[in-house]
Amino acid sequence: MNAPLAADKLDLMKFGVGQPVPRQEDPTLLKGQGRYTDDVNLPGQAYAVMVRSQVAHGLLKGIDAEEARNMPGVLGVWTGADLNAAGYGALKTVMMVPNRDGSQMKTPTRYSLATDKVRFVGDPVAFVVAETQAQARDAAEAVVLDIEPLPAVTEARAATQPGAPIVFDDVPDNVCADFQFGDSAKVADAFAKAAHVTKLHLVSNRIVVCAMEPRTAIGHYDKETDRSTLYAGCQGVFGLKNQMAALLGIKPAQMRVVTGNVGGSFGMKGSPYPEYAGLFHASKILGRPVKWTDDRSGSFLSDQHGRDHDFDAELALDKDGTFLAVRLKGYANLGAYLSNVGAAMGALGVSRNLAAVYRTPLIEVQTKVAFTHTSPIGAYRGAGRPEANYFMERLIATAAREMGLDQTEIRRRNHIKPEEMPYKTASGTVYDSGEFTVLLDKALELADVAGFAARKEESAKRGKLRGLGIGDYLEVTAPPTNEMGGLRFEENGDVTIITGTLDYGQGHWSAFAQVLTTKLGIPFERIKLKQGDSDLLIAGGGTGGSKSIMASGAAIVEASDKVIEKGKQIAGVALEASAADIEFKLGRFEIVGTDRGIGIMELAAKLRGGLKLPEGVPDTLDVSHVHEAAPSAFPNGAHVAEVEIDPDTGTVEVVKYTMVGDFGTVINPMLVEGQSHGGVVQGISQAIFERVVYSEEGQPLTGSFTDYAIPRAGDAPSFRIDYHSVPAKTNVLGAKGCGEAGCAGSLPSVMNAISDALGGKHINMPATPERVWEALRS
């Protein structure tokens, strides 16, 4: 009979890395006990409501707030002139894009409230503060704006044409950046020598983020301490603290950011917004906290939108279907103002990810990044990575059909091979690992592609058109950042992880605890997570770009090593042995070669009980550590989608969906599966349902859920998911990230399946019934 496993080994089998542990947050959230920003109410708080432009482009000639100021409960009305006079700074972008000549992009100044011009419907121009939200709303509606309307432009391609309305006087032709990557001469030569060239016009449609929780913020200036505290949903309190301090013109030490639970973000809540400075201005004047909560209609206007790229794409191939070069020329819409990363996505983001899993020797990307009279564009699940994979995969599927080649064979032929790793791509990235052909073949088998013909025939008997599409993708996760890994042994026997990443739906608590349990043998149920208070942090890159487990996970591993170093010295005292004779394994410090030892939790308890320590021996196991610059990783995978189209109505339904991913070391397969499902549904939604539409005057025609379609649960297919994990060599866990990969695989697989069902015809996203119906009859 096998000997029973020790308790710590049992704990590792149940809660260690690789186990499907449920999310720790769920019991609280499912019982409605989460604490979101709107749940925070400070003593004496007042309420703010924004006054926004209802004109897309116009001269702001006057603001009449007299009636509003005299309404019941109103404490004040402030405009951009008031904020500028108080000396607040401008909203900044953090990612710069170089022009093709090496100069930097245009960065027109944006203050929190417009003063000279309004530049999109929803542009904030004033705000009202009152005793109640209802009073503030009534007063905001009484503010009269004198705006002289001007012509507007809403599409990036149109914005760069001669005679287009100008968004900023100091930005000629509305071009923020004229970006170019690649050797144009070599690319042109490859196209000239190509046996076949595939050309497509590809659009990544503008998306409203539609997070479950609208943005909310409370600004509180404390005169006694001369400190400002922002309560707001965000993606990382440390970075937001520094950006808010710069916006308010104060030192970072005078700024604190606190975040509780966050009801979704997908990139949108990652930066300061213009509403925030005004809250602190009013709080300082009124001597009380000021709270602002957006409604859904306001969210559609004021939240940063996603995507909105317009490219002419070309793929050059030799007679055998080997890729020679890929070239993109197009436009990226910024909206009316620069967001944190808005300029980078359609330029740097696309160029870095276009290589995907293929041995493409030459890449060129030319992007005109343009201002328009629309809501600003910001990061949205993938931020340029799904777009690049979509462009490449649509070109490949189309080229295979045009050349009469098998769509799987053309991919295998051009895959980067494992023996070629590390592989430097034409994008300049260096892949450390990956088995792309093995992974694709696994996905094809799991999806039963061999049985597709029979399923297509069965669909035809029911009057439906069936198509199959592949999305073979690779994405480059976010750039390197420093991340905190703090470990604190509490008085009650718990152990708290302190991190600068921030969970807004990912399930960090369980995954981080699994890493700590595996490393130190600490009981899973005793591990807590602290992540939403900037005062506790010494570093923090926040959550975004699918990097949290690489950054925080590595920080936790390194902090654990420091705990072990301290623990050996302390255990030496407790066990009356030399620290050099102490080893650590499975949660215990033991004297080498003996059965004498002490568990890490027992050692922590002895410290709390007053263990006498000689000079020079650490008196705590606590660690405050910063992991430096977790590098980018390269998650990849293959998705296979099958759709059915009703030719009478043009309605598309995703009826079968299979995905196989390489996320390196999978910390928690249950969480990875959930993240994959979410990303795929958002990709399906962009492919079939979602699109922001503006009138010629710049009025949003899709300003609510009445006019803007997002999927219901019934629109999501059943998923089959599996993994082919090749651990990364660039971080201690071997992880590659997974949070945004679902979008990168679903956009191309679904649209390729739709094109296949249409007999190879190309339509752009979203494949609405109207577009599909017209394509069938064109």
TrEMBL record:
Pfam family, one: Ald_Xan_dh_C
Tree of life domain: Bacteria
UniProt keyword annotation of Oxidoreductase present: yes
SMART domains on file: Ald_Xan_dh_C
UniProt domain Aldehyde oxidase/xanthine dehydrogenase a/b hammerhead: residue ranges: 31-151
KW Iron (keyword) present: no
Keywords, in A-Z order: Molybdenum, Oxidoreductase
InterPro entries named in the record: Ald_Oxase/Xan_DH_a/b (IPR000674), Ald_Oxase/Xan_DH_a/b_sf (IPR036856), Ald_Oxase/xanthine_DH-like (IPR016208), AldOxase/xan_DH_MoCoBD1 (IPR008274), AldOxase/xan_DH_MoCoBD2 (IPR046867), AldOxase/xan_DH_Mopterin-bd_sf (IPR037165)
Protein's name in the database: Xanthine dehydrogenase family protein molybdopterin-binding subunit
Phylogenetic lineage: Bacteria, Pseudomonadati, Pseudomonadota, Alphaproteobacteria, Hyphomicrobiales
